[in-house]
Amino acid sequence: MTSLSIFPFSLIFILALLIPLGYTDATKTLSNDIINKTCQACSLIKSSNFSYGFCSATLAAIPVSHVTNLPGLGLISLELALVDATNTMLKIDGMLTTNESSLICKTCLDSCLELYSDMSAKLEECVGEYLSGGNEDVYSWISEMMQGTALCEGEFEGIGLKSPLTRENYSLSQLYGMVLCIIDLISPIIKSRPSISA
Ligand SMILES: *[C@@H]1O[C@H](CO)[C@@H](O)[C@H](O)[C@H]1NC(C)=O
Ligand SMILES: *[C@@H]1O[C@H](CO)[C@@H](O)[C@H](O)[C@H]1NC(C)=O
Ligand SMILES: *[C@@H]1O[C@H](CO)[C@@H](O)[C@H](O)[C@H]1NC(C)=O
Ligand SMILES: *[C@@H]1O[C@H](CO)[C@@H](O)[C@H](O)[C@H]1NC(C)=O
Predict the structure, then answer these.
(1) Rounded-to-integer distance, Cα 160 and Cα 111, Å
(2) What would the pLDDT profile of 53-66 be if each residue is shown by its tens digit?
């Protein structure tokens, strides 16, 4: 539990500071335009469960999204995924420390905690890798984690319980979908490689 306190990531405001100058385009003042275009493109090329509404509302809420470019939106989505995974980890940790006798499936929560902690750590690595241009690695790591979110839900479903983390699965999966789509848009070559798109 002590290790959890080292994550100060609920600070969405910090996002603005984390976007390097190269990722912003000061000449672009058409506020929602890039967000709408990107989310529209993604809802066309991605699966039907990609939500245009989630994509545009989520990005529009981050001030710097309005003055960035496509790689900048990718970085913002990645950082939002990191914040999301970390907050979910803290939420599960909170659930685990409440009254033991009212816990639903402690072992499920334990494995979800492990899953979200691992994703949080991996997402930190993804941010660094993305900033150094390793889009291809980021793409395959995120694809893997996209499948991984289902594991937590499955823990509960497997024993006939309703997962208390369905909303968290939804938002993180959507954010992963956004990152994957934006990388596709930036470097379409990656998408056509069978080993990664499989
Ligand atoms: C972007 O989409 C939102 C809602 O979907 C709309 O209100 C807004 O006018 C759009 N902005 C632009 C620049 O197209
Ligand atoms: C824990 O929950 C049980 C049943 O839900 C309740 O009877 C008990 O008073 C609770 N204990 C504490 C310390 O809240
Ligand atoms: C998790 O959420 C995504 C939508 O973002 C959905 O497609 C997927 O089916 C959900 N997984 C489970 C196991 O419910
Ligand atoms: C959409 O559903 C497919 C198939 O169930 C899943 O592999 C994919 O991760 C989902 N995408 C999103 C954005 O949730």
Answers:
(1) 16
(2) 999 999 999 888 87
